[in-house]
Write a structure and sequence with these properties.
By secondary structure, this protein is α/β, with parallel strands linked by helices. The protein folds into three domains: 3-130, Rossmann fold; 131-162 and 200-278, Serine Threonine Protein Phosphatase 5, Tetratricopeptide repeat (Alpha Horseshoe); 298-459, DNA Cyclobutane Dipyrimidine Photolyase, subunit A, domain 3 (Orthogonal Bundle). It is built from 21 helices and five strands. A five-stranded parallel β-sheet has the order 3-2-1-4-5, sandwiched between helices. Helix 4 (79-90) runs parallel beside helix 5 (103-118), helix 13 (315-327) crosses helix 14 and helix 15 packs antiparallel against helix 16 (366-377). The longest helix is centred in the middle third of the chain and has 23 residues, at 256-278. The structure holds flavin-adenine dinucleotide (FAD). The site of flavin-adenine dinucleotide has 28 residues, from helix 9, helix 11, helix 14 and helix 16.
């Protein structure tokens, strides 16, 4: 029987997995392979929260394969070398891999193709595995990618998606494929205490529950910070324990304004991937430079550290930053206002913030993280690059009764009670009596909002 190697990367699932399906066609036996790539660790992407989630995903994938008569083969090292080694050990004549957008993934694909062809083996790369609509599938007439979301979304919505595939019934794995032990959560330190569990089973259960009882209200409630009414599917989409094609199909089938608004967000994910695939440098360099000369030096470093710790003295920002540390996940509205505060109110380089988010986010993703940071900083694809989100206005709008702030900054609850103030007063602790404020231990604001705004406008040459 001919042997194929299926290289799992950001597609850690058995349902709707085109590379696995193609490899199994013709009753071939397959080697389901995951390589823990040393270059990913060296580049600083192996954050503890994501390593823990990844360990859950690999364990679940292995269990799913064992139920089908197979098992997962895990190796560590350089992906290209390990894939070639496994292919040689098992006498595989072809390798299947999902296409991905980053410069690292594109380089890996080229190197792998070259190395396999030199040994007389074929590489098959599959689109629409890690995205619903692949980068490059829709383009404007004049250039290679869309730089504005709205027209992209119009084209994206008209694309016919392939039909989702069932999970295979059997996965025959040849004997010769030797595996290292599966990675585990044991021994990982620096994890968020309330980190979500990973794995395809978990992802599918979450998706089913979301479509049953969450998506319907999404259009109205997705921005309610305390309501926590978004899907929380982002880590599953990042690790590919859910297929974006399947998620879009199932959401469309569920129908209604909530599901429609949810599908629109999934299009944002593909949008950022097509930008990154066309402009890989946007992971690190301004997509559209505004000539910023960001603050740096000791005062900026102290401000950035207060931001990281959730001790800026602006409660809604601090609540968001504390949620990030505690859960390794953050509500989109929290990401937006915390990023705007760092890049605009404090006028600190978006890369400083993006790095901290990548250290903690379980869904931390080069395309989504870096390009959303650039969007907020005004160096990316936002058509209103100089907009500044006022933390206070955001707090009043998206946390009107202070419930979100009180969840993450509990010391302000006592302060508000002691002052006989309403719960909504927690958004402006500087108005509470000095005695109550200092007893709470909550810091004074590190920046005056009006001064921060004026500094930003001067820096961008707007005034
Ligand atoms: C500064 C900043 C950094 C971000 N970093 C990341 C990141 O590293 N990884 C990540 O997956 N998302 C990132 N986002 C986008 C967004 O905040 C998260 O995808 C979302 O909060 C995840 O929660 P959810 O799954 O409940 O989303 P839902 O609201 O339920 O949306 C469904 C899915 O749509 C996608 N999506 C939603 N909003 C966006 C968006 N603005 N851009 C791209 N895709 C989106 C996600 O895959 C999400 O799971 C970032 C946003 C900002 C402003």
């Amino acid at each position: 029987m001919n042997v194929s190697v299926v290289v799992f990367t950001s597609d850690l699932r058995l349902y709707d997995h085109p590379p696995l399906r193609a490899a199994l066609d013709g009753r071939r036996s397959v080697v389901p392979l995951f390589v823990r790539d040393a270059a990913v660790d060296r580049a600083g992407f192996a954050a503890p929260n994501r390593l823990a989630f990844l360990a859950d995903c690999l364990r679940d994938l292995d269990e799913g394969l064992r139920e089908r008569g197979g098992r997962l083969v895990v190796r560590s090292g350089d992906t290209v070398e390990e894939v070639c080694r496994v292919a040689a050990e098992t006498d595989a004549d072809e390798v299947h891999l999902a296409a991905e957008a980053s410069a690292f993934a594109q380089r890996r694909e080229r190197r792998l193709r070259h190395a396999l062809e030199a040994e007389g083996r074929r590489l098959h790369v599959h689109d629409a595995v890690t995205t619903a609509v692949p980068p490059g599938a829709v383009t404007p007439a004049s250039t290679d990618h869309f730089a504005v979301f709205t027209p992209y979304f119009r084209h994206w919505s008209r694309q016919a998606l392939r039909r989702p595939l069932a999970a295979p019934r059997a996965v025959p794995v040849p004997d010769g494929a030797v595996s290292e032990p599966l990675p585990s959560r044991d021994g990982l330190s620096g994890l968020s205490p309330a980190l979500a569990p990973g794995g395809e089973s978990e992802g599918r259960a979450r998706l089913a529950a979301w479509l049953r009882s969450g998506a319907e209200a999404y259009a109205d409630r997705h921005d309610d910070l305390a309501g926590d009414a978004t899907s929380r599917l982002s880590p599953h989409l990042h690790f590919g324990t859910l297929s974006p094609v399947e998620v879009v199909h199932r959401a469309r089938r569920a129908g209604g304004p909530g599901a429609e608004a949810f599908v629109r967000q999934l299009a944002w994910r593909d949008f950022h991937r097509q930008v990154l695939a066309a402009r890989p440098t946007a992971a690190h360099a301004d997509y559209r430079t505004r000539g910023d000369r960001w603050r740096w030096g000791p005062a900026a470093a102290a401000d950035a550290e207060a931001w990281r710790q959730g001790r800026t003295g602006h409660p809604i920002v601090d609540a968001a930053m504390r949620q990030l540390l505690h859960e390794g996940w953050l509500h989109n509205r929290g990401r937006l206002l915390a990023a705007s505060f760092l890049t605009k109110t404090l006028y600190i380089d978006w890369r400083v913030g993006a790095e901290h988010f990548l250290r903690w986010l379980v869904d931390g993703d080069l395309a989504n993280n870096q390009l959303n940071w650039q969007w907020v900083a005004g160096t990316g694809t936002d058509t209103r690059p100089h907009r500044v989100l006022s933390p206070l206005a955001q707090a009043r709008r998206y946390d009107p009764d202070g419930a979100y702030v009180l969840r993450w900054v509990p010391e302000l609850a006592d302060a508000a009670d002691a002052a006989g103030a309403t719960r909504a007063a927690v958004h402006e602790p500087w108005k509470l009596p000095e005695r109550v404020r200092s007893a709470s231990g909550y810091p004074d604001p590190i920046v005056d909002l009006a001064e921060g705004l004026a500094r930003f406008r001067r820096a961008r040459g707007l005034d």
